[in-house]
Amino acid sequence: MSSDIDNDSRKALQEVINRLKNYKPPSNQWDEFDVSRRAAVLILLFPDSKGELRVVLTERSSNLRTFAGQVALPGGKADSPTETAFETARREASEEIGLPSRNDLLPSPFTVTHLCEMPTNLSRNQLGVRPVVALLHTKPGYSGSTVNAEESLIPRLDPKEVASVFTVPLRAFLESDYKSPEFEFNPAEKFAESTVDIDWGTVPTGKTGWYEGQWLEWYGIKWRGHQFNVYTSPVVVQRRDSTQVLEDEAQAYAIGNLEGGRRSGGGTHDKKLIKYKVWGMTARIVVDAARVAFGKNPDFEYVDKMGDDEVIQLLQKEGKLGPRVKGVIEDTGVGTRVSNGEGRKAESGKL
């Protein structure tokens, strides 16, 4: 952690970290999935210079086969039956954003600590997605000069499969009226937008245009769709010429970036504000992670139960979650809007 963080902020940050460390998901359905249906995403958190815990998000490249142009957490499919969710998430984060998959490859003084795992979610293409929460921080006992991951590490990553990388305060995903310090909201003002444009048919709530939501139905189960409109200056990626890079070469390239600054093909900060839309499964995952981290619920409507165990159990009973068969188009159960959905309204206090 940065030595510039005041004592009160440091104490509050440690409480958040402890909540995540102590969290145990009620069940682990991920292990029950065939390896062809296992995936994991990395909820990579780090404290900024003020002690605010931030989460790393990406905009997927527009030329990817699945979910092109969408905002997502770093992650992907498991490689083998023995690969854990944490190992999957770290490997995929290495391939996607250049974060080394092993701590001994991270430049000093940084390290990554596994905090917890969240309940398994089901993606639209019927993968069991296990969110893994990890903390990027300086090593215990580090007494050197002050370092800030957002300034000294994040911009030097070497993304391969994403168009840009940006970070957002985790607590913002509990607020319907969050105001980013980077801009003054003006509904009439035009911002550069990320690739995907989702029309919810709703008007953003509050004065900042930060949040909008919609009740949906997925396989007959009510589901709350969240969308957060993030205005930020991202790390814009200039992709390398080679599209196929062995992982060891990618690791070496990423380490060079982290230790020696940006090379050709690395990320650069774009000063203009871009509007990113964090929605769907990604939005639900970060909302749930924020609920656990801060020990309270959002001030907008939400589904109390975390994860998708009801849908997973339903599809398992119907025999629809066996090994994936190449070329077979599967029913995605895409949600329909519910005019009078019922869910939990936010409550203050502990979970």
What's the CATH architecture name?
A: Alpha-Beta Complex
Q: Give helix % range.
A: 10-25%
Shape: globular
Distance between the termini: 27 Å
**The CATH homology group name:** Nucleoside Triphosphate Pyrophosphohydrolase
Keywords: Hydrolase, Magnesium, Manganese, Metal-binding
InterPro entries: CoAse, NUDIX_hydrolase-like_dom_sf, NUDIX_hydrolase_dom
Cofactor: Mg(2+); Mn(2+)
Protein name: Nudix hydrolase domain-containing protein
Summarize the structure in words.
- With 351 residues, the chain is an alpha+beta fold.
- It has one domain (7-337): Nucleoside Triphosphate Pyrophosphohydrolase.
- The chain has six helices and 15 strands.
- The strands form two sheets. Strands 1, 2, 3, 4, 5, 6, 7, 8, 12 and 13 form a ten-stranded mixed sheet that branches.
- Helix 1 packs across helix 5 (280-294).
- The chain is globular and about 55 Å long.
- The protein starts with 6 loop residues before the first helix and ends in a 14-residue tail after the last strand.
- The model is unreliable at 195-204, 236-270 and 335-351 (pLDDT under 50).
